[in-house]
Amino acid sequence: KKIILDSDIVFLNELTEILDWSESDSRKTLYARHFIYPNFRREGVDLSWLIVLRMFIERTNKKIDFGFNSGFLCFHKKMYSLKRIEELMQYAYSVGLGESWAPEQYIMSALVAESPNEYLGRKYVHTHSSREYLHMVKNPFACKKMVHFAFLSKDHYYPLAIKVLIKNIFFRRGVNEKTK
């Protein structure tokens, strides 16, 4: 089993679902998705993602989750063949996506769609913008286990990472536990 983990992720609570998966015989791929808040408008990066996503859906004939993000992914290594990855890479390059972040994102989303998979739920989220992050933190972090700071939300990464680090080093408690 393998876990893909971007470096701009903060873990807020124990990852029980991931630990259970790692010790099980499951061959499901576990993934987190983009945080989509109420009144979400597709614009900018999200609109371009949607256009290319539709191209990959047409190419693979699979339903790909619009909110998929490859920044945190748990999978069984036998689920993916090098041949299939090469086919998808050739397609990505043929439509002009070879020199961007896109091939990795779209190829992983297609591979996940082609295998048994499970969305981890709203406790594991990716944020793409400052606006999304600020909307997300209106609710207590108690319900979140992981936050991935992608694209324009990175300004919020270090303040939260330092808070979690200080709380864990000095208090040896989870970020959501109250100190006495």
Count every helix, treating DSSP H or I runs of 4 or more residues as helices: 6
Quaternary state reads: single chain
Order of helices and strands: EEHEHEHHEEHEH
| Straight-line N-to-C gap | 39 Å
Q: Approximately how much beta-strand content do the residues carry?
A: 15-25%
Strand runs, count: 7
What proportion of the residues is helical, as a percent range? 25-40%
Category by helix and strand content: alpha/beta
Summarize the structure.
The chain is an alpha/beta fold and 180 residues long.
Write up this protein:
The protein is α/β, with parallel strands linked by helices and 180 residues long. It contains 6 helices and 7 strands, in the order ββαβαβααββαβα. Strands 1, 2, 3, 4, 5, 6 and 7 form a 7-stranded mixed beta sheet that branches. Strand 6 (124-127), helix 5 (130-136) and strand 7 (146-149) form a beta-alpha-beta unit. Helix 2 (45-60) crosses helix 4 and helix 3 packs across helix 4. The longest helix is centred in the N-terminal third of the chain and has 16 residues, at 45-60. The termini are far apart.
What's the arrangement of secondary structure elements?
Blueprint: E1 2-5, E2 9-11, H1 16-23, E3 29-34, H2 45-60, E4 68-75, H3 82-94, H4 102-113, E5 117-119, E6 124-127, H5 130-136, E7 146-149, H6 157-171
Parallel strand pairs: 3-5, 3-6, 6-7
Antiparallel strand pairs: 1-4, 2-7, 3-4
Helix pairs in contact: 2-4, 3-4
What labels describe this entry?
seven-stranded mixed beta sheet, 180 residues, alpha/beta, 6 helices, single chain, globular
